[in-house]
Amino acid sequence: MRYASLTCALLLAPLGATGGLRTERIVPLTPMERDTVSARDSAIHALNRLAYGPTPGEVDRVASFGVMRWVDAQLEPGKINDEALAPRERALPVLSYSREALARVYADAARERREAAMGANTMMADSEPAPGPHGRLGRALTDQYVELTLIRAALSQRQLYEVMVDFWTNHFNVLIAKGADRFLLPDYIEHTIRPHAFGRFSDLLGATAESPAMLFYLDNWESVAPGARPPGWRYRFGVGGADSARRARAPRGLNENYARELLELHTLGVDGGYTQQDVVNVARIFTGWSIERPERGGGFQFHDWAHDWGSKVVLGMRFPAGHGQDEGVRLLRWLANAPATMHHVSRALCQRFVRDDPPDGCVDDAVAAWQRSGGDIGAVLRAIVNGADFWAPANRAAKVKTPLVFLVSALRVTGAQPDSSLRLPQVAARLGEPLFMHAAPDGYPESAAAWVNSGALLDRMNVAVALAADRLPGARVDLDVLLGDTPDPAELVAAVDAKVLAGTMTDNTTRVIEDEVSTVPNPVAARALAVGLAIGGPEFQRQ
Amino acid sequence: MTMSRRVFVKGGSLALFSVGLDPLFLARAAFASAAPSDAGPILVCLFQRGAVDGLSMVVPYGEREYYDARPRIAVPRPDVVDLDGHFGLHPRLAPLKEWWDRGSLAVLHAAGSPDPTRSHFDAQDYMESGTPGVKNTADGWLNRYCQHDREHAATPFRAVAFGPQLPRILAGSAPALAIHNLQTFGLGGGAPARDRLTEAFERLYAGTTTGLLASSSDEAFEAVRVLRQANPLQYEPAAGAQYPRGPFGHALLEIAQLIKSGVGLRIAFADVTGWDTHVNQGASDGQLAQRLGEFGQALAAFATDMGERMRDIVILTMSEFGRTVAENGTAGTDHGRATAMLVLGGPVNGGKVLGSWPGLEPAHRFEGRDVAVTTDFRDLFTEVLARHLDARELAAIFPRFAPDPARYPGVIRT
Fold first, then answer.
1. Domain count of chain A?
2. Residues A314 and A222 in one domain
3. Residue A280: how many CB atoms within 10 A of its CB?
């Protein structure tokens, strides 16, 4: 079997290579196009890094449009026509729900649960009651948002924007599985992250600090000045029973969780020079930053009674006594453009766009642009893309795709249509990156070392093979549109190289895929095998 | 049960010889002594990510300060499972008491990092790299152990992490596997198609000469071959052991399965999450109690399932730091310093709470708020490596550290 296929490939390869027809039909380089080969390489690189990879024909379109012109256009997403995506968005009701409406669904579902629990047989107390209509609606809306995230990544023309939304989603990570964040997250991504993805960092930081999703996720909503009591709260002298349970729930003091992650992850970085005392004082500054009850909309609310009105010092900066919410705003404004923050966030951006171990030059360029522009994220991105490091040959194809990038780029390169179901998000989960499910506040890692391991690679191969055979749950692929079919293995592999790997196929990969497809008589099966091997193979794991 | 286990063991050793044709495997095996793969010491490391509250896990119930500092979340005296008159297990860890009574469970209290960071990420990083205070260490200490291990056969399954990602502690130049799910490890599909596909991908990746992609794929295909021979898919835990549902119970079940299938597992690693109890952590019941219940049940099930094999097995639990002595304003605890670590298994010098207990009086706390660290985690780790796995090159495994048997906390019987 093996020998037969090898012989077959050896016989066919030279024939294919000398056939002038093949070269012209499969690698269609006219003399003019040959001069723009470097433009093509640049387009490949730009689409791999600034987008979720190319769609069919996109490399050539971007190359002829001009790569830098394309980058400029991507930096103004509002001007990009996204008509293919629009009907898909309209089909998902979650986008027409305001935060208040989502909160109402959540409150109704909670009431429904309580009523069901009270009505249930006490013997069954351990088992979870099946959700009622409000609970099911709440779950469906959350699921829709998760589905939408993959649909947008795959289909949106505003690719750099979607990539940046993912970046900030991880930088300002919130776990969808934590209590109220189930209903707060869609609003958080939609109205806190997305409007600011290309705006000023200080606006984005301020928006996350006030967002109910973050206040809940990092526990700040219930952090209060030591000893502070809500109005109308009365100490009861009851012992045991419901009374002591209520007392246990009454907030009694500080919680440092948000304060620490704000400094360590969102702004200054762990080496930002702050002390434990700074963390405590930041927590004091944010006492009172809380959330309305879901019945009233679940929005941001500042609680006077919970705030610590005393004086504080953070990193040598004085915050005099007698200030309320304004001192938190002042601190955020200062943190947003502190030198350590510029460096920390610029470094993370360079890691995302240039190299896992970001070059100093890239970080310096980004920081300089940050200083010039007052933290305008678009300007910082432009500086990174204009820098020599971004285009350096050594940094091209130097990053390994994260599971999300792998999955979305595979959908895009095959022109697959994601459906509106949880099945594709489940594929992302199987690959190791369930959306919005990173429990720790640092978000999903960006570096290859975190993702590349033997089990994960096997999972990617499985997904690749299933996708190419149109057997991947949640996506439909039509390879006829992408490739046509040809009985000639060499011709087929050359076409796969051009369409799936944008002409980057190595000799070894060419040889192996030719060997394999030459033993498969059915051209449709051979084509699926070739595409599956290409997407599951080593070239496609890189970006 | 005994029957099927024998079959696995046999299948496993068969597998090892039949894949002997693979040159990579031969090259690795040549370094190792010819110890049979299904015998010898095994280390199971469990990382309680998120910083477990050591004071709830192993309660200093003999101390007034414990109750003073935690009016809402202290475990009441009558609920504590007494160990030595001063410390007791959280009631949900009661399934482990049997192992304490047999002298197979030791507690090391007040253990932690010499670095005072209260950042989860830094502290986890230090505990996994084994170099507290130094961030640019490229590999993890369990991986460095494997790099220097000449004592045991180098099989593809020597070091396995059970989860979707290979953790920092096992990252490095020595081969290590991450297995998300043993049942689906490898390529899908029916037998002939699957084997051809596996071979094709193996050839594709054989052309990748450098980097993580190359080494990970080598390891993957080697493991797929061995696992296919060992066939661990049908598995019935022994002695009626009941693993709790959920990812942690499942990970321990798969570790047991792999050990019994005789593929040469030497180092197993799994994460267990949900310990970052800033809010309403509860006392005898509640959030933390629930996590401890699952944790204790899983450990007990594993030990029961392994039966006689526990003779060669040491389970070591670790967590990046402990939590504040006093409860915080939201009936939870914030990030602290020292915590308790459990050591369970046949070779363990058990039935003792080891380490030097600093006490909870405010003057004895670290910065007046946290349990002070009296045992450097590296002293614990070096002891386990040296006395349980016969590791010799401890200085290379823990750089910038002078391993010293005089500082071993004494968790392994000598």
1. 3
2. yes
3. 17
Cβ contact, residue pair B196, A516, below 8 Å: yes
Q: What was the pLDDT predicted at A131?
A: 84
Cβ <8 Å between A251 and B334: no
**A180, A306: one domain:** yes
Task: State the nearest Cα–Cα gap between B349 and chain A, in angstroms.
Answer: 35
Q: Say whether A454 and B217 touch across the interface (CB within 8 A).
A: yes
Give a yes or no: residue A49 inside a domain.
no
Phi, psi of A420 (to 5 degrees): -95, 80
User: What residues make up the domain containing A201?
Assistant: 93-267+269-336
| Model confidence pLDDT, tens digit, residues A129-169 | 578 999 999 999 999 999 999 999 999 999 999 999 999 99
- Domain co-membership, A239 together with A135: yes
Residues of chain B with pLDDT under 70: 1-38, 191, 209, 231-233
Task: Name every chain A residue with its beta carbon within 8 A of the beta carbon of B224.
Answer: 458
- B82 φ/ψ angles, rounded to the nearest 5 degrees: -60, 140
Note the pTM of the prediction, 2 decimals: 0.80
Closest CA to B319 of B273, B283, B388: B273
3-state DSSP assignment of residue A290 = strand
Of B220, B273, B279, the CB nearest to A454: B220
Mutate to test the interface with B, among A252, A453, A472, A535 (most CBs of B within 10 A): A453
Residue where a domain stops, chosen among A390, A411, A430: A390
Q: Which residue of A has its CA nearest to B218?
A: A454
Mean pLDDT of A475-492: 91
**A and B: number of Cβ contacts within 8 A:** 155
Give the residue from A390, A420, A454 where a domain finishes. A390
Q: Note the pLDDT of residue B235.
A: 84
| Domain presence at residue A203 | yes
Do A439 and A297 share a structural domain?
no
Angle, in degrees to the nearest 10, between helices A67-74 and A58-65: 100
- pLDDT for position A129: 58
CB contact under 8 A, A461 and B201: yes
Q: How far is B379 from chain A (nearest CA, A)?
A: 26
Q: Is the CB of A219 less than 8 angstroms away from the CB of B279?
A: yes
| A74 belongs to a structural domain | no
What is the Cα–Cα distance from B344 to B43, expressed in whole angstroms?
10
Chain segment A244-281, per-residue pLDDT in tens: 444 444 556 899 999 999 999 999 999 999 999 999 99
- Residue in chain A nearest B169 by alpha carbon: A450
The verdict on ipTM greater than 0.90 is no
Which residues are bridge partners to B179 per DSSP? B162
Cβ-based contacts of B161 with chain A (< 8 Å): 453
Between chains, do A222 and B330 touch, taking CB under 8 Å as contact? yes
Please, what is the average pLDDT of chain B?
87
Residue A197, in any domain of the structure: yes
Residues A16 and A127 placed together within one structural domain of the fold: no
Interface of A with B in 93-132 (CB under 8 A): none
Residues A322 and A241 in one domain: yes
- Residues within 8 A of B (CB atoms), A 250-279 only: 251-257, 260, 264, 270, 276, 279
Provide mean pLDDT across the span A42-53.
98
The residues near A57 (Cβ < 8 Å, ≥ 6 apart) are: none
User: How many Å apart are CA A201 and CA A233, to the nearest integer?
Assistant: 39
Query: Which amino acid belongs to residue B301?
Result: A
Give residue B65's pLDDT: 97
Q: How far is B102 from chain A (nearest CA, A)?
A: 33
So what's the pLDDT on residue A190?
97
- On whether both A196 and A285 belong to a single domain, the answer is yes
CA–CA distance, B162 with B165 (Å, rounded to integer): 8
A279, A269 in Cβ contact below 8 A?
no
Q: Do residues A119 and A135 share a domain?
A: yes
Q: Compare all CA atoms of chain B with the CA of A447 and give the residue at the minimum distance.
A: B212
Q: Do A256 and B177 touch (CB under 8 A)?
A: no
Query: What is the per-residue pLDDT for B209?
Result: 63
Token output for A355: 């190299």
Tell me the sheet residues that pair with B268. Answer: B44, B160
